[in-house]
Amino acid sequence: MEVLAATSHSLSCxxxxxxxxxxxxxxxxxxxRILESRLQGFSLYVRTNAVNRHRSCSNSDxxxxxxxxxxxxxxxxxxxxxxxxxxxxxxxxxxxxxxLLFLEAWRTIDRAYVDKSFNGQSWxxxxxxxxxxxxxxxxxxxxxxxxxxxxxxxxxFTRFLEPEKFKSLRSGTQGxxxxxxxxxxxxxxxDGSVAGLIVISASPGGPAYRAGISSGDIILAIDDTTTxxxxxxxxxxxxxxxEGSSVELTIRSGPETKHLALTREKVSLNPVQSRLCEVPGSxxxxxxxxxxxxxxxxxxxxxxxxxxxxxxxxxxxxxxxLDLRDNSGGLFPEGIEIxxxxxxxxxxxxICDSLGVRDIYxxxxxxxxxxxxxxxxxxxxxxxxxxxxxxxxxxxNKRAVLFGEPTYGxxxxxxxxxxxxxxxxxxxxxxxETPAHTNIDKVGVIPDHPLPVSFPKDEDSFCRCLQDSASxxxxxxxxxxxx
Length: 483
Description:
Blueprint (H helix, E strand, L loop, with lengths): L1 E5 L2 E2 L11 E2 L6 H20 L13 H26 L8 H16 L10 H11 L5 H13 L7 E3 L1 H10 L3 E4 L2 E4 L11 E6 L4 H4 L7 E5 L2 E2 L5 H8 L6 E8 L2 E8 L1 E4 L3 E7 L9 E7 L6 H14 L5 E4 L5 E3 H11 L3 E7 L5 E6 L11 E5 L6 H11 L4 E4 L7 E7 L5 E10 L25 H9 L9 H4 L3
Parallel strand pairs: 3-21, 14-15, 15-19, 19-20
Antiparallel strand pairs: 1-16, 1-21, 2-6, 4-22, 5-12, 6-7, 7-8, 8-9, 8-10, 10-11, 13-14, 17-18, 17-22, 21-22
Helix pairs in contact: 1-2, 3-5, 9-10, 10-11
Subcellular location: Plastid, Chloroplast thylakoid lumen
Enzyme class: hydrolase
Keywords: Hydrolase, Protease, Serine protease, Thylakoid
C-alpha cells in the first residue's frame, strides 16, 4: 500500500501521493471473503479501541467513547447479518477472469474507502447489479465497469489507474518525471466562479515555469479541449506525452487569457535547494540564515533536507527559513520524517478513519537535528497536502512562525493499491487533523503573518531581500524570527 498525502496531480507525471505498494490478492472465494472482510473490519475496530491512543477525532472521551463502542457493537452485528444475507444472494453463475478482477477492485474499495456509507448506497447491492448487468467480456470493458463503479462515490481523488498510469505514478514518487512540470488541482472556492483546473505549482525550471505559468492560474483548455468538466487525471493524461512533443494550453492569469504552446521534456525534481544568507550589520540578531527550499516530497526529500541542514550548520548558521511555497505535496511518510527533523517532541498529525478512530504520528526527538534554532516557514496557496501536514505540525507545536498566505486546503489522504493485472486504485482512506485538531480541508493552514507582495521565490533573490533594507521586499531577521 502506498500512502499518498495528495491534493493535486502533477502533470509532469508527478503524483503527489505514497510508501510501498501492496499487491491485492486475487478474489478466491466470494462467499468466504465477504464475511471475512466484515469480521476482520470489526476485529480491527475492537483492537484499536482497546488502545488508549486511538480515540475519535475532534470528540471528547468519556460518555462518547462508551456510546461509540456500543454503537459499533450493534453495527458489527448488523454487518455480520448483512454479510450473511449477501452470501445467500451471491451469483450462482461461474465467475470469469474479468469478473474476478472487477471483484478485486470492489473488495479493495469495500475494505479501504473512508466513507463506509459509500456515498449513501448499498455497496453489496452495487456489486450484485454490476455483475449481472455490466458487460465484462474484455479487459477494457472491465476497466470501464471499474471506473463506473468508482464514479458512484463522487470522489475525484479515488480513481482507477491502468497499468501504464500506475507505473507512471510510482515513478513520479521517485523523481523521474516527463511532461510540462505542472501540479494542478480542483478549485477550492464554493462560489462556482472558476470553470477549469487550477495550477497549484509549476516545477522550477520546467516548461510551464519558463512560460510564466504560476500558482493560482486557471487552465481553461488543453489542445482546444475545455477543462470545464475535465478531471485532473484526464488532464494529466493529456498533458503527458513523449519527450519533445508539444501541447497547447489556454491559461487565465488574473484578467489575462494566454495561449501557450509548451514542449514536453524530462523534468528533474531535485527536491531541495539551499543557500547561506549573510546579513551584514545585524550584529547579534541572526547574522547567518540558512534558506532551504523544499519543492516536493519524493523518496529523496528527507535525506536531502538533512544534508542541507548539516551543510548549513557546518557554516555556523544560527537560524533557518524553510520555503514550502508551491510545494504541492507528495509522499506522506516523507512529510512525517521531515517534521521529525525539526521537532524535539510532539504530535505531528492525527489520522481519522471512517469510524472516527484516531491514529497518531508523533516524535520523541530521536530524529531531530535542528530542533532549537529559530525557524520561519513560508507558505502560499500552492502549499498543499504533505506540505500542509508539515506546516501545520511546525505551527501547532510552536516550533516555527508561518509567513505568507493560507495554504491550498487538502485534508484527505489516499493510498494506492496494486491489482493483480498491474493496474491500480488510488483510494481516499482517511482525513487528517493538525496537532491542534484543526481540519484544514478546503480551508488550509493559516499563516501567522503575511509576506510582502513582491517577496521572491528563488534563493538568490531571497537573500537580497534580507540584505537590502531599501528593497520593496525587505524583511529583517527580527520580523522573520519574532520568538
